[in-house]
């Protein structure tokens, strides 16, 4: 009986290690984190290291005044379940922008974060 209990604990330990690995963290984004870009990017995309649960994922872009400039709700890409994206207006005015994301991975765990990018003035 004691042996069985030890096995159950070891097995659940291995299982939660697996769950930890399945948390979704960003591996890349477009624009890149901290990027200074010449033209409005059209949309913001974030690639994660695990597939996303499409419900309740958030991706918002705000301007320097805190106004939301992204359009509509964030979408998980139909062909790549680890890619989250949101549309931007065709011509984003120059200035700094703040991206906020919050996603649920398939194991039900939530991760969140934010980053900035800047659209350079036209010249
Ligand atoms: Cu997890």
- Give average pLDDT, whole number: 86
Multimeric status of the protein: single chain
Radius of gyration: 19 Å
**Major pleated sheet:** 4 strands, antiparallel
Quote the CATH topology.
Answer: Immunoglobulin-like
CATH class: Mainly Beta
Assign a percent range to the helix content.
10-25%
Strand content: over 45%
Q: How far is the N terminus from the C terminus? A: 76 Å
What structural class is derived from the secondary structure elements?
Answer: alpha+beta
CATH architecture: Sandwich
Sum up the overall morphology in one term: elongated
Q: How large is the count of helical segments?
A: 1
Order of helices and strands: HEEEEEEEE
Total E-strand runs: 8
How many structural domains in the coordinates?
1
What ligand molecules are bound, each kind once?
copper (II) ion
């Amino acid at each position: 009986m004691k042996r069985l209990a030890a096995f159950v604990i070891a097995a659940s330990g291995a299982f939660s290690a697996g769950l930890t690995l399945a948390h979704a963290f960003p591996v890349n984004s477009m624009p890149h984190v901290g990027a200074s870009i010449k033209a409005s990017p059209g949309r913001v995309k974030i690639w994660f290291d695990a597939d996303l649960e499409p419900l309740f994922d958030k991706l918002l872009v705000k301007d320097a005044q805190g106004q939301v400039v992204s359009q509509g709700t964030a979408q998980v890409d139909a062909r790549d379940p680890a890619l989250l994206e949101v549309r931007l207006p065709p011509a984003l005015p120059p200035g700094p922008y703040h991206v906020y994301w919050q996603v649920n991975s398939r194991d039900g765990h939530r991760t969140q974060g934010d980053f900035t990018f800047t659209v350079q003035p036209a010249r």
